[in-house]
Structures are given as structure tokens and as C-alpha cells.
Amino acid sequence: MRIAALIVAAGRGTRAAAPGAGPKQYALIGGRPVLAHTIAAFADHPEIDEIKVVIHADDGELYAHASGCTAKLSPAATGGATRQASVHSGLEALAASKPDLVLIHDAARPFVSAATISKVIATLKSARAALAALPVTDTLKRASDRGVVEDTIPRAGLWRAQTPQGFHFEPILDAHRKAAEQGLDKFTDDAAIAEWAGFDVAIVEDETGNIKLTTAEDLKLADRQMTSNIAFEPRTGTGFDVHRFTEGDHVWLGGVKIPHTHKLEGHSDADVILHALTDALLGAIGDGDIGQHFPPSDPKWKGAASRLFLEDAARRVKDRGGRIVNVDITVLAEAPRVGPHRPAIQALIGDVLGLTPDRIGIKATTTEGMGFTGRREGIAAMASASVLLPYGLSE
């Protein structure tokens, strides 16, 4: 039996995330995007064979940084104007792989447990549809238009619908197709479509921890919960880079264009500071070196701004749930002088790595006329980076 998970991540949800951070499913909790945690919950489950994520058309880059690496993840599908349309799009995209069962889940529920996933799958052995839900424990009131209590609603038999919601694949795809054909687009969850199509929907009691992150406060609490359960270990990486001078009128150092009598020769912009710093970050996480990820033999990187390399290294740290603590750089050169440009270099590096200036050391020294730098044949730079990486859950 082939079982797929369909994760719905096409919503905007911007009111929950920090300004400029994008939709809530890409907000960071515990050092990783919400969506990354949600994908991992299904990727780690032994009964799930395939994961399909439905994303907004504008979120391709955000998704690429959040999706991580798992063999179960198939290419993302593009969502529609409503949740119902997004799920329908995802189901159509899954049709080619012919799953027997599908579990449909909200991206904003990263705390779903393996036990809940297992119970929904088990229920589908005897039912065409299964709904993770929680019994209503609060007293419910219906309010009038004047904002006063109009009625008390008995809570017996009432449940709060959650996800995952599980279905036999072909029947739920057929139900979505029929609803779309009839112009019915107001269903707020897939269990409602199943009910409309005449399915009996079995209830699976969920766990209270499977909350949906809706507000900014939810994200803060989730981050606190994730972080409190993660133990971090310090990592240190070092980098070294050197480039020779050639004819020109400026050099790039730390992403800053500095007038000079020569320029540095290299396939990219030959920025020794950013090259050394990129290698230091890659070294801290054991992920090769700059030449491996951006080979000088590739014409794509000819003349490229080295900021791109540093951004990629920072993303690799972030994708591992890591945090960059501080960086320190020493430039070896007779000229040009680095000191006057220190604030600008710190500002650029801080912008890329999310660090304040007090966490970015920029120093320069000469070699007293000795060696290739002393003979003004080129410039060298050394860098170190300190990173905190999660290595497991604390007890």
C-alpha cells in the first residue's frame, strides 16, 4: 500500500510572521522554518512513502530554503486562490504516482506526532475518511449581532477538526473534481468535502500538542518550545584565501569596492575577505569548501559578486538549524588600508549573516615588506567563524 502526505503551504498567513519574513510557514522556530519541521514529521514516519507540498506561486525561493533534503519529497505543486483549490491542485499532482491513501495536513501544524499519523492511517483500513480531532471541552456560546449571549450550545458530541485528515486517494480526488465542476468552493477542510460526497468520516482523537500556528504569539511560543528542547554544540571553522594583483583601479574587500592602483585577479570578483569567510562557515558545518560549491571552471560564476557565496554558506548553516555566533577576519596587505572601510564591511557582512557589528571582527596587518604581500603582489585574508549547531533533543 502506497501512502502519500499532502502538505498545504500555499496560504499567505503574513499577520503571524515578522515584517519582511514572509508567510508564517516560513517563519523560524527552533532555528528552522515551520514548514521544515512539518515536512520532517512525515518524512520520519515509516509508513509515509511520498510527500507533496503545495506552495504559493510566489514562494519558490522560500520553499527551496525550507524544504530540506528527503528522498520522500516530490516536486512541489502550485496552489490556488483558496485552500480547497490548493488541495485539489496537490491531489492532481499526486495522481501520477497513484497512492492508495493520502493524508492532507496544514503546513502550520509542525507538532503533529507520529502517533497521530499512525492512528489516522490505521483508521483508514476500515473507513474511507478519517479526521484527527479534539473533543470540545469549553462551554460554547452563540452571540447576537449586539454582542451579547444569545444561546448556550451543548458541547456533547462536538469536536474541533484538526489535521492530518486521511482519505482513500481516488474517492477524495473524485470528490474534489466534482465540487470544482459544480462551482462549490467554500469548503474549509477536506472532511467537509468528504461529508458532502457522502463519505462517513471517522474521528481519530488527536493530541493537544498538535496546534495550528496562527498568530505572532503562537510563533514565539513555538520557538520557545523548540529551542528549550534542543541542545547546541559549538563549532568553529577557519578559512584562508589569496589573490594576486593585476591591472585595474579597484579591489573588492568584504563586499566593498575600494579604489586602488590594481585589482585582484580571480574568476569571480576575487574578494579575499568574503571567500575566506565563506570557507570558514562551510568548515564549521563540515560542508566542503567554496571551490566545491562554486567551481571556477563554471562560467556561471565569472565575475560574480562574492556576497552570493557568503549568502549560500549562511543558508547552509540555517538549513541545519544552526546559528552563527560571531566571525573574525584578518587581512594581510600592504595596501589599500582597510581601517577606513571597516564600518561598511561590517555592515555588509552583518546584513548577510544577521550579525551586529560587535560580532564581526575586521582587522588588517602588513607583513613588514616580507613575502608576496610585502612585495605588493597580492592580498590574503584569514577568517574564523563560530557556529552553534543542534545535535539532538535534550532529555
TrEMBL record:
Residues reported in the UniProt entry to bind 4-CDP-2-C-methyl-D-erythritol 2-phosphate: 241-243, 267-268, 289-291, 365-368, 372, 375
Catalytic activity: 2-C-methyl-D-erythritol 4-phosphate + CTP + H(+) = 4-CDP-2-C-methyl-D-erythritol + diphosphate; 4-CDP-2-C-methyl-D-erythritol 2-phosphate = 2-C-methyl-D-erythritol 2,4-cyclic diphosphate + CMP
UniProt-annotated site: Positions MEP for the nucleophilic attack, residues: 155, 212
Site positions per UniProt: Transition state stabilizer: 15, 24, 267, 366
Record EC number: 2.7.7.60, 4.6.1.12
Keywords for this protein: Isoprene biosynthesis, Lyase, Metal-binding, Multifunctional enzyme, Nucleotidyltransferase, Transferase
Keyword Transferase: yes
Gene Ontology biological process terms from the UniProt entry: isopentenyl diphosphate biosynthetic process, methylerythritol 4-phosphate pathway; terpenoid biosynthetic process
Residue segments, region 2-C-methyl-D-erythritol 2,4-cyclodiphosphate synthase: 235-395
Pfam families assigned to the protein according to its UniProt record, in alphabetical order: IspD, YgbB
Cofactor: a divalent metal cation
Pathway(s) served: Isoprenoid biosynthesis; isopentenyl diphosphate biosynthesis via DXP pathway; isopentenyl diphosphate from 1-deoxy-D-xylulose 5-phosphate: step 4/6; Isoprenoid biosynthesis; isopentenyl diphosphate biosynthesis via DXP pathway; isopentenyl diphosphate from 1-deoxy-D-xylulose 5-phosphate: step 2/6
GO molecular function: 2-C-methyl-D-erythritol 2,4-cyclodiphosphate synthase activity; 2-C-methyl-D-erythritol 4-phosphate cytidylyltransferase activity; metal ion binding
Record function comment: Bifunctional enzyme that catalyzes the formation of 4-diphosphocytidyl-2-C-methyl-D-erythritol from CTP and 2-C-methyl-D-erythritol 4-phosphate (MEP) (IspD), and catalyzes the conversion of 4-diphosphocytidyl-2-C-methyl-D-erythritol 2-phosphate (CDP-ME2P) to 2-C-methyl-D-erythritol 2,4-cyclodiphosphate (ME-CPP) with a corresponding release of cytidine 5-monophosphate (CMP) (IspF).
HAMAP family in the cross-refs: IspD (MF_00108), IspDF (MF_01520), IspF (MF_00107)
Family as reported in the entry's similarity comment: Belongs to the IspF family.
Protein name: Bifunctional enzyme IspD/IspF
Source species of the chain: Hyphomicrobium denitrificans (strain ATCC 51888 / DSM 1869 / NCIMB 11706 / TK 0415)
